[in-house]
Amino acid sequence: MMNMNVLSSSSPSHCTCGHWYVRHGICLACKEKPSLVQSRPFDYIFSGLRLSQEAVSFTKRLTTLISLHTHKKLHLVLDLDHTLVHTCKVSNLSEGEKYLIEGEKPCLKLYQSRIIKVRPFLEDFLKEADKIFNMYVYTKGNLEYAKELDSPVTKTLDLVLGDERGIVIVDDRVNVWPHHKRNLLGITRYQYFKHKDINKVLKPSYAESKRDESESSGALANLLKYLKEIHNGFFSCDVQEELDTKDVRLLIKGPFKPHGC
Ligand SMILES: [Mg+2]
Ligand SMILES: [Zn+2]
């Protein structure tokens, strides 16, 4: 009888749900509309999805466990601009680069008023890295937003659903990750077009001189080699339980720039 009383007294008005996962304002578990739960948007997974703080930390831990034990995958956070691609407004192309917009070029894409150059080896890199990492790309949008707000650019792992001990970050600007230095790999800034070329003002750009980074021994090819080493190092243990204490930060000891990157 006691039990029955307890059960019947838990009416929806005394909801004990933590409202961990809310979509378009409605809790996925109890269907209520929570108002006072602190949460963070995860629109990149489902539009309108928000996770509470508890849900974020629980999901990070769970995702890492599943990822490590079931798929043998780590997490890889890749910066986009100057790491994977270089983009430039068509109107900012130099005289010597205007040939690029005439005719089809397989490694160039026009998007709205911008021209996008993919870094050599990118396609192979993504295909191979995908086998050993869950991949995230940190887009320029976040950065421009930060600039507009006139705040210093700081990138965080808040939206990456994985434990820090299993996350590798790659960026051409290592100073934008002040809180995650030990997870961080530096890579040479990929500058294909002349516009805003800070280092090589006097030299012709790759585009002008019709050259490019090497496919087989450029930064992305060398990065892939290093990432495979990190992956091997992480999973090189005899007992499964050891995986629960492994930490990429002890392998990377970042910020670190791998050879040839
Ligand atoms: Mg960048
Ligand atoms: Zn709820």
From TrEMBL:
Signal peptide start-end: none
Chain segments annotated as transmembrane: none
Cross-referenced CDD domains: HAD_FCP1-like
Superkingdom field: Eukaryota
Family annotation (Pfam families): NIF
EC number: 3.1.3.16
Cited SMART domains: CPDc (SM00577)
FCP1 homology domain: residues covered: 69-246
Annotated keywords: Hydrolase, Nucleus
Catalytic activity: O-phospho-L-seryl-[protein] + H2O = L-seryl-[protein] + phosphate; O-phospho-L-threonyl-[protein] + H2O = L-threonyl-[protein] + phosphate
Localization of this protein: Nucleus
Root EC class: hydrolase
Gene3D superfamilies: HAD superfamily/HAD-like
Protein name as it appears in the record: protein-serine/threonine phosphatase
Phylogenetic classification of the source organism: Eukaryota, Viridiplantae, Streptophyta, Embryophyta, Tracheophyta
Gene from which the chain derives: A01g510370.1_BraROA
